UniProtKB/TrEMBL annotation:
It comes from Algoriphagus jejuensis. This is ABC transporter permease. NCBIfam families: perm_prefix_2. Keywords: Cell membrane, Membrane, Transmembrane, Transmembrane helix. Residues 345-458, 731-842 form the ABC3 transporter permease C-terminal domain.
Length: 851
């Protein structure tokens, strides 16, 4: 009879259940089962041991597929949960791979470094730039660098060019860069036209990417064409670069000869410009083999004392590896490595949640499958054969889920690119590493989700299985399922805690009092350095009815553009050790931004430095406790070239993001340093007033591009990375919670079907609807509370570390965790509510008739 081990055994057994159930002796019971399978009832097939491997796999597939078709709800829930989690895993994989591949295409990437600066005052600040002469010194005085190149990057360049006989003007957000020729020996950025060795050797020459060449000149040959920067400097194009890869932190697409820097900024091009660090002045080096970064850092330290002997702002020049540039936010990196870790952790959480669902539902279905297992064992199937049969069923579900996930991931790539501001190619399936990842994911899910249910299902004793006398422990055990549900809830609650904390911190940063007015204030770029033109336009702007106030200044109170300086105070012969933020502006600055004057008076109108207003942080750093004591004291800034008495003290205001503390700040007049008009607009007529401002500006500067931004938008840019992280966690948290809800729905459906008679008996004995609902609900409430005890300390630890990056931050209070557990209870109640209420209101007569 062992030859008859294939076929629809469950159906055969169910047709004879009444007869088989009456047998008491185990041996007689088994004999009757064997006698049932006589010719004519089932179609005989070859035993497993006589099947080829292909035949065995084919048999496994056919049986597994039929089983899934008979259990459509079970298969649908598992496939939906796994497909969602795998979609997220694939997207997270390509996103992480995209970031990890930044600038890894350069030939000698392991020996390429950027020189950066640590500024040691009362605290340490980090700058990705260096004094412009440092590159020259490193090249000429030392042999550590096989190649050394300097680059000055100027963002938001306005480029003018002629196309088809017409002059056109375009703003390039990524700007352009004055670049030494050796830059292209260090980095693998080949030319498609021109000679890289000679393209930038002459002054006023430029190379640009193929994309910009097409954008500017269409099908015309770009070589020999002329582009003009800000209507000031003209450059002849001598080369065309191949388009920059999307995975590079080299942003400018226009590179001009470094020898032209002297015309653009004589001080910056000087070999003696050690007195300050200009943003965008980079130095790159490709070290010789065997040279360590520490050797170079040590060799560069003497230049600090040599060129800045009296400065309290001690520079430490460090070498930053090319592979770290993208991931070090201290030096302007696009993201932190911890963010990569968060993404990977979320992917793992999502995968675990889906696998937990599978295990829960599979073990909950064990009772239905127990009869099938009993019959198969009676007919001679080995446990190993049954184990691989159930593993194969899991593999079918995992494979179908992956196919659905691939389609979904492919469709979602454009949205991911918009969401995370990336350029992941849509044809990512051609990536060999992704193919290997998907294959590995399929195997991992199959083993992770399938092994435990297969182990449980194949462990039944045939007699107990056929008689239906299996214990709950043999069916996988409530304790096991409880543990898995706790894991699910704990993961969801950790994510919920993270979402709540990040949302609250972002709300705090955007709604906190900054110490100045930021609403409806427009920053318009200056069009001309002429004092007369500047004053004329300011007066014309004040005549517009929608404008309340106007100030001409270097930057807003809180801005990414800052000028940090060292000062001397009073009769001190040495500079102070702390960082001073210079706010250069006219006498209307304080009233325009509504800064609160605590003592003294405002600045008198002037175009040169005469007086100074300081903030509270300045007095605190100087050790002055009385505002009145500070008034009249002299301040010497910018190496003594800016001198004036303190005439006023303003309340502290945030000059940077909430990540940093409030700087010691001074405000003084210096018209040669102004860059913007700060225009306070009446909030009721912003659009109309903006049009009037643009019209007036263009009349004054017909050859200039009108550039503007709102102060609150600039402040929002401080938190771009955090906003992206928040949206990402919100999305993935929703997916994780949804997957968990699918599992809960399937599990409660099983529990309701198992307790149908019990519900009927309880209702007959007087149990009300509320009692029945609590019968099911108490189990989940208990599990949610246990999960919370696990999730709360984990969530607190993760979010405490995340908040450490903020100088000004919210406190992790009890309300945050109360909201997390409350959300979990609501989500669970909504998920299981329908099934539970339907079971509670059903007629007990119907429940008692259920088999």
């Amino acid at each position: 009879m062992l030859d008859y081990i294939e076929g629809d055994l469950i159906e055969v057994y169910e047709r004879n259940f009444q007869k088989l159930g009456k047998r008491n002796a185990d041996w007689k019971f088994i004999l009757d089962v064997l006698l049932l399978f006589r010719p004519g009832i089932i179609r005989p097939r070859k035993p497993y041991q006589n099947l080829t491997p292909f035949g065995m796999y084919k048999s496994h597939f056919k049986i597994g597929w039929r089983t899934l078709l008979r259990n459509k709800e079970y298969a649908g829930i598992n496939i939906a949960g796994l497909a969602l989690s795998i979609t997220c895993c694939i997207l997270i994989f390509v996103l992480v791979k995209h970031h990890l591949s930044f600038d890894d295409f350069h030939q000698n990437k392991d020996r390429i470094y950027r020189v950066v600066t640590e500024q040691h005052r009362e605290s340490v600040s980090y700058v990705n730039s260096v004094p412009s002469p440092l590159g020259m010194v490193l090249r000429e005085n030392h042999t550590y660098g096989e190649k050394v190149a300097r680059m000055f990057h100027d963002s938001n360049a306005v480029i003018t060019f002629e196309r088809n006989g017409e002059m056109q003007m375009i703003k390039e957000p990524d700007g352009f860069a004055f670049t030494e020729s050796e830059f292209f020996d260090i980095f693998n950025l080949p030319l498609s036209k021109g000679n890289i060795k000679t393209a930038l050797t002459e002054p006023n020459t430029a190379i640009l990417t193929e994309r910009l060449a097409r954008k500017y000149f269409g099908e015309q040959n770009a070589i020999g064409q002329v582009i003009t920067y800000d209507n000031q400097m003209s450059f002849i194009i001598t080369g065309v670069l191949e388009d920059l890869p999307p995975t590079t932190d080299i942003k400018p697409e226009i590179f001009v000869s470094y020898s032209s820097l002297a015309e653009y900024n004589p001080w910056l091009a000087s070999d003696d410009a050690w007195g300050g660090i200009s943003s965008g002045m980079y130095c790159y080096t490709q070290l010789r083999r065997g040279v360590s970064a520490a050797e170079v850092e040590e060799a560069l330290q003497p230049y600090v004392k040599q060129h800045r002997p009296e400065s309290k702002n001690v520079h430490h020049y460090k070498l930053q590896a090319l592979s770290d540039i993208h991931f070090d936010a201290r030096y302007g990196g696009a993201m932190e490595k911890s963010d990569i870790g968060i993404l990977i952790a979320i992917g793992i959480f999502l995968l675990l949640t889906a696998c937990v669902n599978f295990v829960n539902l599979a073990t909950a279905q064990a009772l239905k499958r127990s009869k099938e297992v009993g019959v198969r064992k009676v007919l001679g199937s080995f446990r190993s054969q049954l184990f691989w049969q159930f593993i194969f069923e899991t593999a079918i579900i995992a494979t179908v889920s992956i196919l659905i996930a691939l389609v979904a991931a492919f469709a979602m790539v454009p949205y991911v690119n918009d969401f995370f501001n990336t350029q992941i190619p849509v044809n990512f399936l051609t990536d060999g590493s992704l193919v290997l990842f998907i294959i590995g994911l399929d195997i991992l899910i199959t083993l992770l989700a399938g092994c435990y249910p297969a182990f449980i299902l194949t462990g039944f004793k045939p007699v107990a299985a056929l008689k239906g006398k299996l214990s709950m422990q043999q069916l996988g055990g409530f304790n096991t399922r409880r543990s898995l549900i706790v894991v699910q809830f704990a993961i969801s609650q950790v994510l919920i805690i993270g979402v709540i904390v990040i949302m609250n911190q972002m709300r705090y940063t955007k709604q906190a009092e900054l110490g100045f007015d930021r609403e409806s204030i427009l920053m318009v770029k200056l069009g001309d350095d002429s004092l007369n033109t500047m004053h004329v336009l300011k007066n014309e702007l004040l005549r517009l009815p929608g404008i309340e106030k106007v100030s001409v200044c270097y930057a807003a109170p809180a801005s990414s553009d800052s000028w940090n300086n060292s000062i001397r105070f009073g009769n001190d012969s040495e500079e102070v050790s702390f960082r001073t933020n210079m706010k250069l502006a006219d006498s209307d600055y304080i009233s325009t931004f509504d800064l609160e004057l605590l003592a003294g008076r405002n600045l008198t109108p002037s175009d040169t430095v005469r007086e100074m207003v300081v903030n509270e942080a300045m007095l605190q750093s100087l050790g002055i406790t009385s505002y009145e004591d500070a008034l009249g004291q002299m301040i010497y800034a910018n190496g003594g070239s800016m001198v004036g008495p303190i005439v006023g003290v303003v309340r502290n205001f945030h000059d940077r993001s909430m990540h940093a503390g409030i700087s010691a700040t001074l405000i003084t007049t210096a018209s040669t340093m102004y860059s913007n008009y700060a225009i306070k607009i009446n909030g009721n007529s912003v659009k109309a007033t903006l049009e009037e401002i643009q019209q007036l500006w263009e009349e004054q500067y017909p050859n200039k591009m009108f550039e503007y931004s709102f102060v609150d938008d600039e402040i929002a840019q401080f938190y771009t990375a955090e906003d992206t992280l928040l949206r990402g966690i919100q999305f993935f948290s929703f997916i994780a919670i949804f997957i968990g809800c699918l599992g809960l729905y399937g599990l409660i459906s099983f529990m309701v079907s198992q307790k149908t008679k019990e519900v009927g008996v309880r209702k007959v004995m007087g149990g009300g609807i509320a009692h029945i609902i609590w019968l099911f609900g108490q189990e989940f409430v208990r599990l949610i509370l246990i999960a919370f005890l696990i999730a709360a300390p984990i969530g607190w630890w993760f979010m405490s570390r995340w908040l450490q990056d903020f100088e000004f931050k919210i406190q992790l209070d009890l309300w945050t965790f109360t909201m997390a557990i409350g959300a979990s209870l609501v989500i669970a109640a909504v998920t299981v509510g329908y099934q539970v209420i339907r079971a509670a209101v059903v007629n007990p007569a119907v429940s008692l008739k259920t088999e």
